[in-house]
Amino acid sequence: MKKVIVWILVLISLAAILLRFSDKWAEIFLGVKPTAGISILSTPSDATVYLDEKEVGKTPYEDKNLEVKEYTVKITKEKASWQGKITLTAGTVSVINRDLAPDIASSAGEILILNKGKGLTIISNPTDTQVEIDGKSYGNTPVNVDITPGEHTVLISNSNYLKRSIRVDLPANFNLTVSVDLALSEADLTAITTPVIIQAPEVIVKNTPTGFLRVRDKPNLIGKEITRVKPGDRLILLEELGSWDQVRLSDGTEGFVSASYVEKKNP
User: Fold this and answer.
1) Which CATH code is given to the segment(s) 203-264?
2) How far apart are CA 179 and CA 181, in angstroms?
3) b/e code 128-143 from CB counts within 10 Å (16+ = b)
4) Rg from Cα positions in the chain
5) Is there a contact between 192 and 157 (Cβ–Cβ < 8 Å)?
6) What CA–CA distance (Å, rounded) separates 36 from 44?
7) Is 242 exposed, middle or buried (0-12, 13-18, 19+ CB in 10 A)?
8) What separation in angstroms does the CA of 165 have from each of 61, 112, 130, 180, 197?
9) CB of 112 within 8 A of CB of 168?
10) Model confidence pLDDT, tens digit, residues 64-83
């Protein structure tokens, strides 16, 4: 009887490990690579969509069987177009929604990306833009909001720019990054060019004397070590705090790292 119980516990443990690392095991033993999805919307619709310079269809466009990697996305219709880069997350569908215009100053839109974690991360172009979620103010971008899963309405507003309202659905155990471009409200300012926000800014861990970088629970040397990251690891940048950066790891863990040992990827 004891042997049966032991074997049951072993099987339960193996099942837990397989669930935890299902994508990795499937790729290693079955040759099945994890996939991700993308959904692309545009106004006007019926715009041509290109992924890595290859024409793939018209908006509204969706593909849920894509390789997990960074893609160059281009959306074009007549004289209006938009182009940006997006890194897809395994097992999720990333959303691009664009209002196309002949000039970038009149173009607007957002990119929605899910990663393991919690809450909403809002970044914008222009920066320092006011954020309201469900009618409550949460300060200015970039901002990270710990909010309950479910449907929420995000309102982004900035003087001289058109307000943008975005309806989002936040799943449990995920962080949703919303990257927003606002359009200028003055028609005679369309000659002004502005950069396009493509997704959450990232930092890459540089080489360190120890061969690793500590992630702490506070932005100082006396902060408790949460975990460690390796040179070359990519981290989502949540906030810059002088000599420290608040970051999010790929598994959703958030903490602080020394800014001296990371390099910005998408400022």
Assistant:
1) 2.30.30.40
2) 7
3) ebbbbbeeeebeebbb
4) 21
5) no
6) 26
7) exposed
8) 22, 13, 12, 10, 17
9) yes
10) 999 999 899 999 998 888 98
Contact (CB, 8 A) for 115 and 174: yes
pTM over 0.90: no
pLDDT of res. 30? 43
CA gap 217, 40 in Å, rounded = 37
Q: Residue 22: what are its φ and ψ, rounded to 5°?
A: -60, -40
Cα distance between residue 144 and residue 238, in whole Å = 7
Domain range 35-199, CATH class: mainly beta
Encoded tokens for 176: 């949703």
Predicted local confidence at residue 14, as pLDDT: 52
Residue ranges for the chain with pLDDT beneath 50: 17-21, 25-31, 187-192, 267
CB 189 within 8 A of CB 105: yes
Chain segment 105-115, per-residue pLDDT in tens: 788 999 999 98
Q: Answer positive or negative: Cα dihedral of 86, 64, 183, 80.
A: positive
* Residues 155-161: contacts with CB under 8 Å, at least 24 apart: 155/131, 156/122, 156/124, 156/129, 156/130, 156/131, 156/180, 156/182, 157/129, 157/130, 157/132, 158/124, 158/126, 158/128, 158/129, 158/130, 158/182, 160/184, 160/185, 160/186, 160/189, 161/126, 161/129, 161/185
Q: Strand pairing partners for 122?
A: 143, 178
- Residue 161 one-letter amino acid: Y
Separation of alpha carbons 260 and 267, rounded Å: 16
- CA–CA distance from 129 to each of 122, 137, 184, 233, 238 (Å)? 10, 11, 13, 29, 15
Cis peptide before 142 (omega within 30 of 0): yes
